[in-house]
Structure formats: structure tokens, C-alpha cells
Amino acid sequence: MEVSSTILSLAIILFAILLAPVFSYKVGVPLVVVEIAIGIILGKSFLNMITPNPWLDFFSYFGLIYLLFLAGLEVEFGEIRKRFTPVFSIALASLLIPFTLGLFLGEYLGVNPFFMGTIFSTTSLGVVLPLTRELKQREEFVFLLLRSTVIVDIVSMFLLTVSVEVFLKTLNYLFIFSVFYVVALFMLPFFFGRFKIGQKVRMCCGSNPYFYFEVRFCFALIAILALLAEIIGFHAIIGAFVAGLIVSVITWRGSLLERNLTSFGYGFFIPFFFIMVGVNTNLVALVKNIENILIFLLVLLVGIFGKVFGVGLVSRIFNLTFKESFSLGFIKTARLSLILAGVEIGRNIGILNETFYSIFVLFSLFSVLIGPSIGKILLKKE
Question: What is the mean pLDDT of residues 182-209?
């Protein structure tokens, strides 16, 4: 009996999702890096065992949507208001200097400059958050790191959407109205918190956990806001992120709902997305040309320098030591979730060819391995 290629590919990916945490624990590298590496091995670079098709593309795309939903779920708005000046200043340095360097480098390399600047401006909240749990530094350092990263995530997500609109030449007067709609979307979490919508949702669902009404509510919210974001001219990830912000307001840290939502994401959808990113990466096309390797090294060096230089200098103003300041900069070079979301969108709409797609995927992997490692070493010597 002939086995469907879709079922075979799905079985291989699910088995890879099962084994990835084991390899991550044994090797001692972030799980996401292992998942992408497995995808590279299984994909077109080496074994070519997975054949992309509409079903796999759907699961991968929903994994991207869900990843940004969980990023929103991790945000605590109330904490950002505390010590706003240093948090905003560090976030601004983390955005502007890398973005400016990305503009010039994009012009030089022939990549859409606005898109390149956006890629350089990102920082992965998903990498920074677990890292802070390992750091035994004074609270001020961890506070500035986390809260400034949240602002960077939100702004760079908006920049990503604008860069896509610029490329597609759909940035017109209607886009201004769309911006107002997006601002209104970002006000929804405050509305939900102000009028205690979360309590009303829990009252509606009753005490019977069998129906999992809150989980159903969250998935419906993701779909509705993602659709609304696309209708007004933005990418669906904006809507998913806002849905995460809303759920973070109406629930509490460590709740059963949060654990359920996180388990759905990190148990299936998100690793599926990361493995498919690896599958679509073509290392052979990258390494067979010495010029491509030099471009990758240039992107890596400029990407790291922009964050370290900008964040390191500004952090010194706010009473962080020299090593703490530049440790903060190195940790902020970790770009993963949003950069992978960005390059996936860029590949789909034609901003990036296969070579630059592969370069940026490798850039995100190396930034996660190099930046936080150097940052932790600097803190140990403090």
C-alpha cells in the first residue's frame, strides 16, 4: 500500500519534535536551535525527506501565528510603566542604531533596506525571558533587560509590517487609517483589563473544565484578530500578538489557562514552524559560493555590533557597570522568533531569495548561540 507523502512527512516531523528536547538537553544548546538544525538535516540541504505541501504549510503558518500570540502572552504592561525613562532609552538605542546600520547594509547588498533594518532591530523575547531566570544579577539589570526587550519586540513587529507594505507598494493614505485601527487594537488589552472581561469570561464558562471554554475563547480571539489585522492591511502576526496581550491581561501568571496555551504552542505548533524553517533553508546554495559566506559573516558582524554598541553606551548612563552594559548589549543580539517570522514572510512575498533566506536563518541561529553566551561570561566576571 502506498503511503501518502503528506502523512509520511507529518510522521517524520512529529518524531523529530519528540526527539528535539532530548538532543537539546544532551548538547546544551537552545531547543529552537536544535529544531531548526533538525529541519535543515531533514530538508533540501541534506536528506530531502520532507516534501512541502499545503498541509505542512498550514501547520507551519499557524505555528508562526501562535508563536507571536505567546510572545504577547509574555508581556506585562504594568511593569513597563515603572522606570519608563531608562527602559525606553535602552529600547530606543536597541532599535535605532541597528536599524540605521541595516539600512546602509541593505543598500550595499541589494536587499530591501527597510526590511534589512527591521531584521537588525529585533530582539527575541522568547530567548531573553528564559535567560533572565538563569542570571543571578541585581534586579535592576534583569528589569531593564526584560522591559526594554518588550518595547523592542512591539516596535520591530510594527516596523516589519510597514516594511512589507513598502515593498508591496501598498503604503498609501489608506495605510494611515490602518495605523489608527492598529493603535485601537493595541488599546483592546487595556479595555479588557479595565472592564474585567476575563472575570466575565470565566463566569460564562462555569466550573465544568470539560468544555475548556477559556481555551476555545483564546483560539477564537487569535483567529478573529489575525483576520482583522489582515483586513486592515497588516500581517496576521499583529493580530495574534494583540490577542496574546489581551489574554495576558485577563489571566494571571502560572494559571491553568496559561499552561494549557503554552503546552499547545511549544508541544506542537511552534516546533513545527521552526522545523519547517530549517526544511526550507538551503545550506548547499549558501556554502558553495565563497561570496555568500562572506556576506553571512558581514551580516553577523554588523548585526552584533549594532546592538552591542548602541545598548552598551546608553546603558552606562543608567548606573550599570561597564560589563553589565555590554552584557546587556550582547544578550540583546539574540534574534530568533521575530526574525524567523520576518524572513518567512519575506520569502513568501519575494523580498528575499533562497540564498538570503538561508543567510538570515543562519544569522538568527548564530546570534542566539554567540550573543547570550558572551553576555553571561561578562556577568560572571562582574
Answer: 62
Q: Does residue 131 form part of some domain?
A: no
C-beta neighbour count of 115 within 10 angstroms: 27
Let me know how long the chain is: 382
Say how far apart CA 2 and CA 283 lie, in whole Å: 31
Residue 20 CA to residue 15 CA, distance in Å, equals 9
Q: Do the domain assignments include residue 133?
A: no
Q: Which domain holds residue 45?
A: 5-121+138-380
DSSP state of 2: P
| DSSP for residue 265 | I
Domains identified in the chain, total number: 1
| Full-model pTM | 0.77
Torsion of CA 97, 98, 102, 105, to 10 degrees: 80
- Grid cell digits, residue 371: 550573543
- Per-residue pLDDT at 93: 92
pLDDT average, residue stretch 118-137: 73
pLDDT score of 210 = 46
CA 298 vs CA 62, 292, 301, 302: distances in Å: 32, 10, 5, 6
